[in-house]
């Protein structure tokens, strides 16, 4: 414990010279039993007490309860960790599973939900070769096919309408659904590839990353903020975003830091390069992240 406290103090001293957007109180390693399916954080509940873990290749999906220190294997499927989401109440997980088609060559993807308490999985969207992407808006899961058709599933009831704005990505382009109408939005033109898109908590704007950087737009596609270089960004709240600045030599990651930025131009480095922090997942007062060594950490902060 003494060594861990000294380690946290050293990290806090290392980042104290940067503009303070968040007050970091500690950075602690989460000690997990070794599991190749639990090397990368891919999700976290709003309360910060449950994290989703997958392998570095995002094969398999594991749910870990930080309070009970218990892990549950949700899926062993390839791609199960890709874009896996926790519901707004933290009780269910929505994820995709990949399987081979009948020809044994092409693949199919389906969408499932998993109830953490009773450990029961439910098929939301049957496996199909046309599966493109999915998103979770509150408790409504929305899957898109390559021909732009939507499958809408409510985790809590029979209402299958998407009352809130929903973002999907198909062929590296952003598709926004509002009031049942789906429209492609390309704020900087079709020549760019758009990734890591997500809606702000108040559903009035969204962020994305392309070759030019990380940007925030309103729902009409007008750019309202340029966050510069930032990868794998996630909303902390409506004005602050956390992401990573990672660099590689063409083969392996050589350095990476967790950075928080504000829409008005502020920036703060939360971890130094020794931790190689990647893939941040923010919660109410925590940010979980992992590194290429398969280590999981938690940043505790006050706003």
Tell me briefly what this model is:
Helices cover 5% and strands 52% of the residues.
Q: What Rg do the Cα atoms give? A: 19 Å
Task: Kindly state the number of beta strands.
Answer: 26
| Amount of helix | under 10%
The CATH architecture comes to 7 Propeller
**Major sheet attributes:** 4 strands, antiparallel
How many domains make up the 3D coordinates? 1
The CATH class: Mainly Beta
| The CATH superfamily title | YVTN repeat-like/Quinoprotein amine dehydrogenase
Low-pLDDT stretches: 1-17
User: What spatial form do the alpha-carbon principal axes imply?
Assistant: globular
H/E element sequence = HEEEEEEEEEEEEEEEEEEEEEEEEEE
Label the structural class. mainly beta
- Average pLDDT, rounded to a whole number, is 90
Strand portion, in percent? over 45%
Strand order within the widest sheet?
A: 1-26-25-24
Terminal Cα separation, in Å? 26 Å
Question: CATH fold name, please?
Answer: Methylamine Dehydrogenase, Chain H
Task: Count the DSSP helices.
Answer: 1
């Amino acid at each position: 414990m003494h060594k861990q406290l000294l380690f946290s103090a050293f990290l806090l001293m290392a980042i104290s010279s940067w503009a303070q957007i968040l007050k970091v109180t500690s950075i602690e390693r989460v000690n997990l039993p070794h599991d190749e399916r639990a090397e990368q954080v891919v999700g976290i509940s709003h309360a910060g007490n449950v994290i989703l873990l997958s392998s570095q290749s995002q094969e398999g999906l594991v749910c870990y309860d930080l309070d009970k220190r218990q892990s549950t294997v949700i899926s062993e499927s390839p791609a199960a960790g890709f874009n896996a989401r926790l519901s707004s109440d933290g009780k269910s997980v929505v994820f995709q599973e990949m399987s081979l088609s009948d020809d044994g060559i092409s693949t199919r993807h389906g969408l499932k939900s998993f109830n953490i308490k009773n450990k029961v999985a439910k098929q939301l969207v049957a496996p199909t070769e046309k599966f493109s992407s999915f998103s979770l808006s509150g408790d409504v899961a929305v899957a898109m096919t390559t021909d732009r058709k939507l499958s809408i599933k409510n985790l809590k009831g029979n209402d299958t309408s998407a009352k809130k704005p929903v973002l999907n990505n198909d062929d590296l382009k952003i598709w926004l659904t509002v009031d049942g109408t789906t429209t492609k939005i390309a704020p900087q033109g079709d020549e760019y590839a758009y990734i890591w898109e997500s809606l702000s908590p108040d559903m009035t704007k969204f962020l994305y990353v392309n070759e030019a950087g990380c940007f925030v737009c309103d729902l009409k596609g007008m750019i309202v903020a340029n966050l510069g270089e930032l990868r794998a960004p996630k909303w902390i709240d409506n004005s602050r975003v956390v992401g990573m600045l990672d660099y590689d030599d063409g083969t392996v990651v050589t350095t990476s830091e967790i950075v928080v930025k504000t829409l008005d131009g502020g920036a703060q480095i939360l971890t130094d390069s020794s931790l190689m922090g990647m893939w941040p997942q923010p919660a109410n007062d925590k940010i979980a992240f992992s590194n290429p060594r398969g280590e999981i950490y938690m940043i505790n902060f006050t706003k």
